[in-house]
Each structure stands twice: as structure tokens, then as C-alpha cells.
Amino acid sequence: MADSHGNSAANTQEISVEAPRISRIVNKSKFSWAGTFTELIEFTNKYLHLGDGVAKVIDNENKKTIKSDHLILNWYESTGTLQVQGSRSSSCKTYLNQLIDCTQGIEFPDTSDEDGAACPQIWNDLPSAGPESADIVTKSLFAQELDKIWSQIKILNAKLSCESDIIIEQEDNIQIINSLKQKNQDLNDEICILKSRLNQEIDAAKKLTEERDSLKTALQIVRKDLMKFSDEKLICRSEQSSNYHRSQFDNVSGGKKTKKQKPRDPPQLVNHQNRFEALCHEDLVKDSTSPSNADKSFTTVLVGDSMIKQIQGRKLGREVGHRVVVKSFPGATTNDMKHYLMPTVDKKPQQIILHLGTNDLCDHSPTVVAENIVDLVKKIEMESNAEVILSELVSRSDNVLNDAVKGVNKRLIKYCNQNDWRMIKHQNIDRNCLNKSGQHLNEKGSVNACV
């Protein structure tokens, strides 16, 4: 039985060449051969083992016959039909059907036993064994199929192992990538925080720079004010001393008539200041004739551009009955006044009169100039308790700028009405009140401006 099983396995490998060429047609009684007649003869010799017992091979045009003592095979070449007849036809048909059933769906290697030594005597055993021989063939085919499946399972296991290693490696890589992404996100968040802090530091540095520049400007103004005040104090003392000696001389001369001398003007200070230096006419109101008439506790500061540089605060103070300080900044714009006004605001005067805006008209529209003046007034009100009074812009001889001046004054009147501010109008100043350049007040204009 073991030999038969081994021979069956060998026989199964040989079927790979010829068995797929035979198939059933109807009800397992008729078959079809897809090869040539020569191949059919080789098939019958190898698998049916007719061998030397073949009596005849008849080769006609329509039918070709292989005839032995117990079996007749008729093959019609035109249709491929194969008929099985003879005393052993039933056993042969059963064997062929089992052979067809076992080989369907199995891919056999393309090898064959050339010498046919391994082919069992299946056909010779059919009369005596019958179905047992067919079972041996079937089991052999199943065994080979199982071996093949097992080998495929081993291959799949190897592939799965390799794929598993790849998947594990990919999972590790994914974890590393996620970790790197998280670190990158943390670094980006830290960068955003540092950028925000840097921007805050930059803003703080800008504010400190602006404050430093403002303090520098204020210190320069204070220093120049002190120098101016010192010079004017010396001049005032010199005048008082001269008047005192003159009065003593008049008393000594008695009733003698002396030649009336024209009083000499006080010495004038040489102006060495540039267009942005303060021409500060600060006067300590010391009226020797009527000291009780001046209210020294109340101070008015007149701040403006070069248009007010001819106004004398000392004389104006005698007119209004309290201390008046005039600060003129030639060429100053509304933006410059933000720095120039700081020392004045720090001294806490009771009134601040603003006269500025003419120097802005070359670069800005009347609307912008008026808004800048209003912003400056609001800033003074926030930083002090002083009453702020606006002074109208003075008309000039230039018609173009004159129209712009009127536009600024019109808007300033509107803002004063809205904010309940007082405003000084200069309707009594015309072109006759301007100097030769037509840009500044002459002596008459300075007097009219104080009226």
C-alpha cells in the first residue's frame, strides 16, 4: 500500500502535462481531448497503460481510434470528442472522471518523468482494485495539495514576520515624529512668547527714548530760561541803580534847571538763538510805582511761535494786573510745542494762552492743524489745572496762506464752542500791523494783539 501511495504521488506530477487536456462534455459519459492524436496515444500509454497491448491505431480523416483487447478510444479531431468503449469502459470512465475532478483547480509544476519508471500500474489494477485505486490517487493529490498549502503558509509566515517588523519600525517612527511635532509646537509657542516680550521691550525702549528726548528739550529750555532770566535781572538792577543816582543828582542840584535829557533805552541783548530756541520774555512784575496793583499769585503764560516775540509780558502784566510771562519759539510747530510746553506746565500757571499753528500750514491742511491744536489743549488740561485760552491765527500778506489761516480759525471757533473754551480774536489786526516781510507783527500789531 505504501508503494502504491508513493507511486500515486509520482503519477500526480505527470498528470500536469496531459490531464488538463482532457475534460468532460455531458454527464461524465463523454469526454473532450484538447491535444493532438500523438499526445493522446502517449496519454493512454502512460496513464491507461495499454502499452504493448494496443492492437490497432486507426487514423482516419474524421475519426481516429486506439483499440486494445478490452478498451476502444474513438477521437473526433474536428470536435475534439473522445468516446470510451469496450469491456472496461465503465472503469476507465470512472478513472478519467476522478482524474479530472482531482486535477481541477490545482497548478502542477511543469515537469514529467521522461522514462515513466515511476508510473504505477493503475490501469492494470483497476479490474482487481476498482474504487480503491481511485482513492489512492485522490489521497495522493490531496497530500500534495496540503504540502503545497503548508509551504505557502510558511512563506506567508515569513512575509508576515517581515511585515510585522516593518510595522513595528513604522510605529516607532510615527512615535518619534509625533514627539518631534510636539517639541516643535512647544518651541513655536515659546518663540511666540519671546516675540511678544521682545515687542513689549521695544515699545518700552521707544517710550523711554521719547521721554529722554523730551527731558533733554525741557532741560535746554530751562537752562536758556535761567540764562535769560539772569541777564534780565542784571539789566533791571542796572536800571534801578541808574534811576537812583539820577534822582540823587536831581535832589542835590536843588531848584536849578538842568538840561532835560532823553532817557536812554536799556541795552539790548544780542540774539544768538536759532529758529527752535526759546525767545523767553519772562518778566518779574516789579512795578515800583504801584506794587499793590499786581497779583503776584496769579500767572498767565503766553506761549506761541515767532508771531508773539515782540509782545512784552512786563507791560502786558501791568495792563491786566497780574504776572504775565511770554515764551516765543520761532519756527515751532504744534508737534514741537508738545516738548516746549512741558517746563511751563510743570510750573503750574493759572492760565496758558496758546498762539500757534502758522508754521504747520506749509505741510498740513487747515483741518489737520486745527485738530493738532485741539489735541495739544486736551493734553495740557490732562496734565495741569490751568485754564487754556486759544488765540486766533493772525492773517498774513500771502493770500494762499491767508485763506488757510481763515480755515484754521473757523475750525478752532467750532471746537471752542464744543468744549467751552475761551478764544482771543484779532479783528483789529490787518496788513498795516505786519512788518515788511508780511509774516510777523510790527510794533503796532504787537500793541493791538494785547488789546
From TrEMBL:
Keywords: Coiled coil
Domain of life: Eukaryota
Coiled-coil parts of chain: 198-225
Segments for region (Disordered): 245-271
Name of protein: Scavenger receptor cysteine-rich type 1 M130
